[in-house]
Amino acid sequence: MRKGIFQLKQHETSVKQELSAGLIGFFTIAYIIAVNSLILSEAGVPLEGAVLGTILTSFVGCLIMGLYANAPILVVPGMGINAMFTYTLVQSMELTWQQALGVTTVSGLVFTLIAFSSLTTVIKNAIPESIKLAINIGIGLFLMLIGLEKGHLVERGDQSIIALGDFSDPAVFATIVTFIIALILFIRNVKGNFLWTILFGTGIAFLLGVLPSKTNESFSLQGYQEVFGAFSFVDWATLPYLVAVFSITMVVLFENVGLTYSHVVATNRPEKFKKAFQANGISVMLSGLFGSSPTVSTAETTAAITAGGRTGLTTITTGFLFLIVTFFIPYIQMLPSNAIAPVLMIIGGLMIQDIKKLDLRDLSESFPAIFIIVMIPFTYSIADGIAIGFILYVILKLSTGSARKVSFTLYVIACLFLLHFIIHFAV
After folding, report:
1. Which of 11, 14, 140, 353 could lock 310 by a disulfide, CB 3.0 to 4.6 Å apart?
2. Interaxial angle between packed helices 273-290 and 97-115, expressed in degrees from 0 to 180 and rounded to the nearest 10
3. Distance CA 257, CA 270 (A)
4. What is the DSSP letter of 160?
């Protein structure tokens, strides 16, 4: 590439700024190592193998995104899609975890073929601006909810009812104090405010005695030998396998369209969308090889971008930190939730501000957008929220005599999403 690999001057950034943004991005998304591994283990994947599979998938995904697309987008196994991998593909559809990894590989191949074809531009241009904005806002609300839950300010009770947490709990108090400090640092535009928030939050957790304990368990690479390259194409021609491929492909494809587009726009580099989207496809395909559920352009990327990340150096920094943490796996759970939760809540709040750009006068445009915004956090699934919005958008346009304003591509997308729901409930 001209003017250096990452073109730092052209992007008005510096090595120090990129490294700092990558560090902040890592600390914001580091929880995925523990969470994704535990979810995969419930599918039968050996826990130690799932941990290393998550780390290597994240490292390689970030490396591809950083070098190929030169974009500050963090690529890690996606929340929601990992639950689909375990609870739908394996536990409901009764595939083996090896077959589920095979489904991931095939889905990634289909994704990649689409990403390297003209279909990418066609699909992106077919999505209305109101839908694009709604996806960003909905993800913002979702991040706020995740932050509130990680900080124990709200809890999911019976029947998934959200309730206030126990405010007499020292962990909750630690989150509140850290959140106030985080807001002050952010509003005063203190350099590295998110990193300072994490450091202060960890200190507060230590003082209040709520710092997670270090596990005494040792870590062995032996468990990973059963996971690497364990994907299986056995019974690939059966209905359950094909349905699984279709469902996963639908989810990762359209979830990444929304996430990737919002991230490149946030850095004022929309021209990077195509290469970033292609990097996503390759990463999903390799996820099955390394032993993980599919990757996404994670919503927590906004933390790195807000911290000043503008090039692939940010992403590569995060990727190598994932690799380094392999040597500290027994300590990975020592990072307190009160140190991360405020960062997620602030980022979510920033994303929600896009709501001022929505045109609420045309109900056929605003109602699908509102449903996306609401359903993403309420269903606890970015993919389901997006799908409902697409389907409703087409229905309302048809009912108001505006069928010609909807592109053929959008009709196809909506029908595929509808088919996805039908198959999901039928199987």
Report:
1. 11
2. 160
3. 12
4. G
Contact by Cβ (8 Å): 293, 41? no
Phi then psi dihedrals of residue 162, to 5 deg: -80, 130
Half-sphere exposure of 208 (CA within 13 A, CB side): 23
Convert the pLDDT of each residue in 214-266 to its tens digit: 655 556 666 688 899 889 998 888 877 887 888 788 788 878 988 898 899 98
- Asked if 234 and 99 count as a contact pair (C-beta separation under 8 A), the reply is yes
Q: Which residues, including other chains, have CB under 8 Å from residue 423's CB and lie 6 or more apart? A: 243, 246, 247
Return the half-sphere exposure (C-beta side, CA atoms, 13 A cut-off) of residue 233: 6
- Map out the domains of the chain as residue ranges: 8-426
Beta strands (DSSP E) in 89-188 are: 154-156, 162-164
Distances from the Cα of 325 to the Cα of 76, 80, 180, angstroms? 15, 24, 29
Count of helices and strands (H, E) across the chain: 17, 4
b/e 264-292 (16+ beta carbons within 10 angstroms → b) = bebbebeebbbbbbbbbbbbbbbbbbbbb
Neighbours of 339 (CB within 10 A): 25
Closest CA to 211 of 265, 253, 170: 170
Give me the sign of the Cα torsion angle 417, 423, 426, 427.
Answer: negative
Percent of the chain with pLDDT over 90: 43
Please state, in angstroms and rounded to a whole number, the distance separating the CA atoms of residues 398 and 418.
Answer: 15
Q: Report residue 287 as tokens.
A: 């996820």
Which of 313, 234, 288, 280 minimizes the C-alpha distance to 66?
A: 313
Q: Which tens digit of pLDDT belongs to each residue from 32-41?
A: 887 788 889 8
Give yes or no for a contact between 224 and 329, defined as CB atoms under 8 angstroms apart. Answer: no
Residues facing residue 156 across a β-bridge = 162
**How many C-beta atoms lie closer than 10 Å to residue 83's C-beta?**
16
Which pair of tokens denotes residue 212?
A: 């997670």
3 state SS of 347: helix
Under a CB-based contact definition with an 8 Å cutoff, are residues 170 and 151 in contact? no
Angle at 95 between CA 53 and CA 42, to 5 degrees: 50
Mapped onto helix, strand or coil, the DSSP state of residue 126 is helix
Taking the model in full, what pTM does it have? 0.74
pLDDT at 253: 85
Closest CA to 100 of 280, 298, 378, 288: 288
